[in-house]
Specification:
The chain has nine helices and seven strands. With 243 residues, the protein is of the alpha/beta class. The protein has a seven-stranded parallel β-sheet, with helices on both faces. 48% of the residues are buried. The protein binds NADP nicotinamide-adenine-dinucleotide phosphate. NADP nicotinamide-adenine-dinucleotide phosphate binds next to helix 1 and strand 2.
């Protein structure tokens, strides 16, 4: 079976860890990124060094034309895209709602939800009767992230709804759609929110008393994508140390 996966936002963090793991498992991997070409290239080099197959494609997945180009590029190189990990996600400086301008809200929605919709649509339009999608959500969908980023939390709530609806639409076609909700994971995303050490600060509030590693989230994504999860669709797994 020629398994071809696109992972959006895979130049670092959870996306990069997922790309490395799926390549080890025999997928041909497209590492999508926005701006850090050298980081994406480094992920590809790691894949190749371990004997896997992968390449990277720059594309802003919040833009429909770029998503089309991404899918066409991958299809031409590896054949039909059989698996998709909607992983890209952005957040901005921690702030109360009164301090968040609408331009920021729109950008968060466009990247965190719009791209998931656009990539899922491009995937489904090309898919046959086999495949799987995993959408990366967040526990913020349940907590609402007050005084930090309710825009981000709202976008993740929408991701969970998208997962459910897509799963119901595609179930009879043999395409499964699931999600993961990571908790506090050690990645560079928290620096974008203005607090690089956020996970360390919040670790005592986590039942398991520690933040998670990107590789631990990648394992859950890989299982949901795999044929071992053949009767699982429309589900969202919390990967959050008990939160
Ligand atoms: P991260 O380290 O900040 O990485 C974000 C990735 O997204 C980068 O590869 C970046 O590419 C890419 N990207 C950003 N905007 C893009 C766009 N418009 N088009 C294409 N690529 C774009 O993120 P992370 O912490 O690994 O998070 C991954 C996912 O997990 C996100 O959906 C996030 O919301 C979710 N999550 C994370 C945590 C956590 O604690 N870290 C918790 C819950 C959920 P460039 O670097 O090239 O710009």
């Amino acid at each position: 079976m020629n398994k071809v996966v696109i992972i959006t936002g895979a130049s670092r963090g959870i996306g990069a860890a997922t790309a490395l793991l799926l390549a080890q498992q025999g997928y041909r991997v497209c590492v999508n990124y926005l701006s850090h070409c050298e980081r994406a290239e480094a992920v590809v080099q790691q894949i190749l060094a371990a004997g896997g197959e992968g390449f990277c494609v720059q594309a802003d997945v919040s833009q429909e034309a770029e998503v089309e180009r991404l899918f066409e590029t991958v299809t031409q190189r590896y054949g039909q895209v059989t698996h998709l990990v909607n992983n890209v996600g952005v957040l901005f400086t921690q702030a109360a709602t009164s301090e968040i301008d609408y331009q920021r809200f729109e950008r968060v929605m466009a990247v965190n939800v719009g791209s998931y919709f656009l990539c899922a649509k491009a995937f489904v339009q090309r898919a046959s009767d086999y495949g799987a999608i995993v959408n990366v959500s967040s526990t913020a969908a349940k907590t609402g992230s007050p005084f930090e980023y309710i825009d981000y939390a709202a976008s993740k709530g929408a991701v969970d709804s998208l997962t459910k609806g897509l799963a119901m639409e595609l179930a009879a076609r043999g395409i499964r759609v699931n999600g993961v909700r990571p908790g506090f994971i050690y990645t560079e995303m928290h620096a974008d929110g203005g607090e690089p050490d956020r996970v360390k600060r919040l670790a005592p509030q986590i039942p398991m008393q520690r933040g998670g590693a990107p590789e631990e989230v990648a394992q859950s994504i890989a299982w949901l994508l795999s044929d071992e999860a053949s009767y699982v669709t429309g589900s969202v797994i919390d990967v959050a140390g008990g939160r």
